[in-house]
């Protein structure tokens, strides 16, 4: 826990303790910056939380500047002493997931108070509110991470909720290279991303007769992408796979792990999707540093590897040239309207949020789009062209899932942006 005496609140024209949000106001013009200090007086990550209301369980977005970031594997509600998932309700499983997450984070010099982003996977839509409420109860007000919810089958019997996370570390030390920590007790893993350049690789998929073979071929193709952009498998920070069926999750993880030395196997997260393709895999990868000592004029660049076709609505690879990150909570339409209106509502909110955080739609790095209705896909592709610069769309994956977590909504956007300057 962070002592209250070590929390510095940035001065603002508005006192955050006296704000009363009007019911119809979605954003308040306040970016609360929290500088977390350790007893050695060394400054750690500067983390800023952009909130919709002081009472919200998550931030609209979280901005992190120049720090080592922890990325975790998918954390299950596993009883570490017995190695089993208890038959508990969603609320109690949520508390257990957070306990396990804190256990893992402490192994790599972090904790729940350093959370930046939570990706939350729930087995059923009707359980989402229970999970939200328990997260709100368990986390301190100062550490309200950006959160994205998706409803999917989970890779574990009896599991109702799982999470993976991004967190800042307590240490002010800089890393020279990626570090991977695999916990033998829990089976969970975490990677440490050095402050600096980072590549976000869009989901790639190769057709095959079986899920195992498709996984192998897709990983081979991804390794070619790593080579093209000038990095290596040893720099992979996180792997996310959209796959079906979830009952073959262990086989998929074994294939993915086989592409890395045992001590360098990165964290993996799995989401079951509905697709004619058995699997699509995306990656986050550390990049070699530029020797330039000044901040680059362009903070994010976009690339298309040889042999791949460029698209006006997503980039094959987006490379953040600076270490600042803007993690945006999953954005849903404000109202239950038709698909076109929901899509525009989501993109209008996205534009407002990233602009308040110091970015814009020309500096989006990584998007994950979850849709619960295939009818969204047609208008979604068209409407994206109204918002994206065709030469600068984010790297992206789109997955059709059971639910985006909330009734009468068909789309949620999860986004990472980079400051525009």
TrEMBL record:
Q: One Gene Ontology cellular component annotation?
A: cytosol
Identify the domain of life.
Bacteria
Q: Which residues cross the membrane?
A: none
Q: Which gene encodes it?
A: rutC
The protein in question is named: Aminoacrylate peracid reductase RutC
Any one Gene Ontology MF annotation carried by this entry is: deaminase activity
Q: Which family does it belong to?
A: Belongs to the RutC family.
Q: Provide the taxonomic classification.
A: Bacteria, Pseudomonadati, Planctomycetota, Planctomycetia, Planctomycetales
Please give the organism.
Answer: Gimesia aquarii
């Amino acid at each position: 826990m962070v002592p209250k005496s070590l929390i510095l609140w940035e001065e603002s024209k508005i006192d955050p303790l006296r704000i009363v949000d009007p019911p119809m106001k979605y954003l308040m013009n306040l970016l609360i910056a929290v500088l977390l200090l350790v007893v050695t007086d060394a400054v750690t990550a500067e983390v800023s939380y952009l909130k919709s209301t002081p009472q919200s369980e998550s931030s609209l977005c979280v901005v992190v500047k120049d720090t080592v970031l922890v990325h975790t594997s998918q954390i299950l509600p596993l009883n570490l002493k017995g190695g089993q998932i208890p038959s508990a309700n969603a609320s109690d499983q949520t508390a257990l997931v957070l306990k396990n997450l804190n256990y893992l984070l402490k192994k790599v010099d972090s904790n729940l108070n350093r959370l930046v982003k939570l990706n939350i996977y729930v087995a059923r839509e009707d359980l989402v509110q229970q999970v939200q409420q328990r997260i709100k109860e368990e986390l301190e007000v100062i550490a309200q991470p950006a959160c994205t919810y998706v409803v999917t089958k989970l890779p574990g019997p009896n599991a109702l909720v799982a999470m993976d996370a991004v967190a800042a570390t307590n240490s002010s030390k800089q890393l020279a290279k990626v570090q991977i920590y695999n916990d033998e007790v829990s089976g969970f893993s975490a990677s440490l991303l050095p402050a600096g350049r980072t590549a976000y690789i869009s989901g790639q998929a190769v057709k095959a007769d079986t899920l195992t073979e498709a996984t192998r071929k897709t990983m081979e193709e991804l390794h070619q992408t790593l080579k093209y952009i000038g990095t290596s498998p040893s720099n992979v920070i996180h792997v996310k796979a959209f796959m079906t069926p979830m009952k073959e999750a262990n086989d998929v993880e074994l294939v993915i792990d086989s592409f890395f030395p045992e001590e360098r196997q990165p964290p993996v997260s799995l989401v079951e999707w509905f697709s004619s393709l058995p699997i699509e895999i995306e990656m986050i990868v550390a990049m070699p540093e530029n020797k330039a000592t000044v901040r680059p004029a362009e903070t994010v660049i976009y690339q298309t590897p040889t042999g791949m076709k460029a698209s006006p609505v997503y980039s094959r690879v987006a490379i953040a040239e600076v270490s600042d990150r803007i993690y945006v909570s999953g954005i849903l339409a404000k109202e239950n309207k038709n698909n076109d209106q929901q899509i525009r509502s989501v993109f209008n909110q996205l534009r407002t949020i990233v602009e308040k955080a110091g970015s814009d739609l020309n500096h989006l790095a990584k998007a994950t789009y979850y849709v619960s209705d295939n009818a969204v896909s047609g208008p979604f592709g068209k409407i994206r062209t109204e918002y994206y610069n065709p030469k600068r769309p984010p790297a992206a994956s789109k997955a059709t899932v059971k639910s985006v977590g909330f009734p009468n909504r068909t789309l949620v956007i999860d986004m990472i942006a980079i400051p525009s300057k």
